[in-house]
Amino acid sequence: MRVDWKRVSVYLLFALAVSCLVLGYVYTISQQRTGNVTYQKIQGDKSEHLTTFEVMIEPGVDAGKVYRALMLCPNAYGYVIIPYDVSRVEPSQWYAPAPFPKEGEDWLIVVADGDVYPADVGGWTVQYTGRIVVLDLDRYPDVILASIITHECTHQFESGRLDYYTTNIAAYSLWIHDEWIGVYPKMGENGWKSLYNLYILDEYLNS
Ligand SMILES: [Zn+2]
User: Residue 39 — very low, low, confident or very high, per pLDDT cuts 50/70/90?
Assistant: First the structure.
């Protein structure tokens, strides 16, 4: 496993400077598996998704908000909310004691209580395994929580640009223009960072 702490730090500083919301705090713990994504389909489910995640909501987290946030995520990702099962998680090696899906518990999102676990990121994942934790904070609006979930899910389908929008601003601006959205992204605002997730996803869908 490899964590590029220097880039993460730069990213965190930038996010701190531009926003007190935590959307920008997310990062990826990348590892050796390459971009060969295993698409997970649920047996008998005819709905169209790139993959489907199981979602476990930790007791104490606002389940209604998580439900609304999932409804606001792109259809590329399907979600099945299941009962919280402590046997499928372990203390994260990066932000213990925050829970994280155990090795082999792929395509599993844990939504944990960010007001309980100290971490300076909104969520993290081991790329291409679908193992994700998202820390919900009481102060997050629905759309911010949806953006963090979408961000971590999109990491499963990209190869390294999702966390580095500041170095990809020209390409993003072109996409903004081509998609009739506007002229120039104001990256200090959460909405533009949120839309960047869709830009990376759209590029994947067009590749
Ligand atoms: Zn990230």
Answer: confident
Neighbours of 119 (CB within 10 A): 18
CA of 29 to the centre of ligand 1 (A): 8
Phi-psi region of 136 (alpha: psi -120 to 50; beta: other; left: phi over 0): beta
148 membership: H or E segment, kind and range:
helix 142-154
**Is the previous residue joined to 97 through a cis bond, with omega within 30 degrees of 0?**
yes
The tokens of 202 are what?
């759209």
Higher pLDDT, 45 or 18: 45
Neighbours of ion ligand 1 (CB under 5 A): 26-28, 163
- Distance from the alpha carbon of residue 176 to the mean position of ligand 1, in angstroms: 20
**Mean pLDDT computed over 169-185:** 95
Q: Which residues contact 96 (CB under 8 A, 6 or more apart)?
A: none
What would the pLDDT profile of 140-164 be if each residue is shown by its tens digit? Answer: 999 999 999 999 999 999 999 999 9
Token couple for 156: 């499963």
Whole-number Å distance, alpha carbon 44 to ligand 1 midpoint, is 32
CB 50 within 8 A of CB 202: no
